[in-house]
UniProtKB/TrEMBL annotation:
BP terms from Gene Ontology: peptide transport
Domain ABC transporter: 5-252
Domain of life: Bacteria
Family: Belongs to the ABC transporter superfamily.
GO cellular component: plasma membrane
CDD domains registered for this protein in UniProt: ABC_NikE_OppD_transporters (cd03257)
Organism placement in taxonomy: Bacteria, Thermotogati, Thermotogota, Thermotogae, Thermotogales
The keyword Cell membrane belongs to this UniProt entry's keyword annotation: yes
Entry keywords, A to Z: ATP-binding, Cell inner membrane, Cell membrane, Membrane, Nucleotide-binding, Translocase, Transport
Protein topology in the membrane: Peripheral membrane protein
Gene3D superfamilies, per database record: P-loop containing nucleotide triphosphate hydrolases (3.40.50.300)
Transmembrane regions listed in the UniProt entry: none
Organism: Pseudothermotoga lettingae (strain ATCC BAA-301 / DSM 14385 / NBRC 107922 / TMO) (Thermotoga lettingae)
Subcellular location: Cell membrane
Protein name listed in UniProt: Oligopeptide/dipeptide ABC transporter, ATPase subunit
């Protein structure tokens, strides 16, 4: 497969009072054509900021990209004047109620996307909007376009955000926690929706979540982040069968099983570190049960292991 998006050594810095924090901090990964890549990790690991950096939407002046490259279709998005946001790259934001304007009807908000990017007249744009809404399973779109966001259910608002993101047939769709706050039935519907988009339109997807069980249902590969760093990148099946990084293993072990009712849930001890003063060496070592003496002194390198990558001293010197 050909690479559509390549992120190289990306670091984003935020100023908070008299302190600075970096998340993400020197991460590298790729998304191939017609591939769904899951980006998972605890809150505060830098997942959403990574997405905002790709979209060139890092909030200024508090935040800024201090180094790295974001290569999309051979062009560095950080070095060009016109970002392909909304046309070739689109994003489904985390909270649709905050992303949609409560004072404007849904139809007008969606048609504005096509009028802005393609200079379509209102009638042409509305025809396209209704067709996309039908494809995404929004019932009776001719009537729904005349409603306001608060008149939609949570699932319908999320479908509307997806419709807005795919109106221009993007090559890359970034979904930031698109199933958060939805019940499991609606979650399953939204996941199926993304699968159909990938199959029908051959759209590449970067799917962000803190929930590995959700990611496992859609991702071809999974990137595991912790405290601004990437711990592991692996095909989904391999990651669940044999997690390499102790943090990944902890996340998988903490997923409750269907037959474990009444048993104590597994948990990773401790908390994510303060990124204004991150620990020396591996950032996970204060919580790791398998740490070595070197883990607290030196940051682990990225080690290729059986067509996977892991940043952990446990694999230093292992034949790859």
């Amino acid at each position: 497969m050909k690479s559509l998006l390549t992120v190289e050594d990306l670091a984003v810095e935020f100023r908070i009072s008299n302190s600075k924090l970096r998340a993400p901090d020197g991460i590298s990964f790729s998304v191939m054509e017609n591939e769904c890549v899951g980006l998972v990790g605890e809150s505060g690991s830098g997942k959403s900021v990574t997405a905002l950096a790709i979209m060139n939407l890092v909030p200024a002046p508090q935040g800024r990209i201090i180094r790295g490259k974001i290569i999309f279709e051979g062009l560095d998005l950080l070095a060009i004047n016109k970002h392909p946001r909304g046309t070739k790259i689109s994003m489904v934001f985390q909270n649709p109620m905050n992303s949609l304007n409560p004072n404007i009807k849904i139809g007008k908000q969606l048609t504005e996307v096509l009028q802005e990017h393609y200079n379509l007249n209102y009638r042409e744009a509305m025809e396209r909007v209704i067709r996309v809404m039908q494809e995404l399973g929004i019932p009776d779109p001719e009537k729904m376009i005349d409603r306001y966001p608060f008149e939609y259910s949570g699932g319908m608002r999320q479908r509307t955000m997806i419709a807005m993101a795919v109106l221009c047939n993007p090559k890359l769709l970034i979904a930031d926690e698109p199933t958060t706050a939805l019940d499991v039935t609606i979650q399953a519907q939204i996941i199926q929706l993304f699968k159909k988009l990938k199959e029908k339109s051959r759209t590449s997807i970067l799917f962000i979540s803190h929930d590995l069980s959700v990611i496992s249902q859609i991702a071809d590969r999974i990137i595991v982040m912790y405290a601004g760093k990437i711990c592991e990148i692996s095909p989904t099946t391999d990651l669940f069968r044999n997690p390499l990084h102790p943090y990944t293993a902890g996340l998988i072990n903490s997923i409750p099983g269907a037959n474990e009712r009444g048993t104590k849930l597994m948990a990773i001890p401790g908390n994510i570190p303060d990124l204004t003063n991150p620990p020396e060496g591996c950032r996970f070592h204060p919580r790791c049960s398998r740490k070595l003496p070197i883990c607290s002194r030196k940051e682990p390198p990225v080690i290729l292991y059986e067509q996977r990558s892991v940043s952990c001293w446990l694999y230093e010197g292992v034949n790859t």
